Amino acid sequence: MPDPNPACSPRPAGEETRPPQEELVRLARLILPLAPYDGSFDLRLPGVQVSRVSRPYKELAHCVHRAALCLVAQGAKRVLLEKEALVYDASTLLVSSMNLPVAAQVTQA
């Protein structure tokens, strides 16, 4: 019986996946036209944004972090929630199911 969802089928033997670093470079290239300079940019899909920061920041930015799924294509970010520090980069994601008051800092651009 054929698989009803071929996208979830196992890869054929011998077919390799790209290394994670290569995928991150590809993701960064795809994002580049959407964020041509530093700042945050709304995409056509409501509630979806991309941001670009070209240098680390020593100072913390205080804000209300909306419920979100955040990923980093390059660099790293630190988010402080009360006394807890959350660091995420290209190897991790940040998921927030509710709006939270935070202090954030780009630690690596």
List keywords for this structure.
8 strands, 11% helix, two-stranded antiparallel ribbon, 109 residues, disordered N terminus, mainly beta, four-stranded antiparallel β-sheet, 1 helix
Description:
It is a single chain. It is built from one helix and eight strands, in the order αββββββββ. Helices cover 11% and strands 39% of the residues. Strands 3-8-5-6 form a four-stranded antiparallel beta sheet, with no helix packed on it. It has one helix spanning 20-31; strands spanning 39-42, 49-52, 61-65, 68-71, 76-81, 84-89, 93-96, 100-108. The model is unreliable at 1-13 (pLDDT under 50). It is globular, with a radius of gyration of 17 Å. β1 and β2 (49-52) form a beta hairpin. By secondary structure, it is mostly beta strands.
